[in-house]
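Hey, I was hoping to borrow your eyes for a little while. A protein chain has come my way and I'm curious about its shape. Take your time with it, there's no hurry, and the full record follows here:
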Amino acid sequence: MRIADQFDPKYQGIADDFTAATVALGALVTRVIETAISILSGARGIRVATKDLSPRAQT
């Protein structure tokens, strides 16, 4: 999110800081989502491997 409005020059730094913070937050949320997807994928792989090994352990 970018603040498009022009501010009094003495407040422009606040608008720029807000923009930088929202960009950083967006990047952080993206990394969290990517990590969560990776964890879910790994958990699914473990679940499949567990199901595959379960019958073998019973024999």
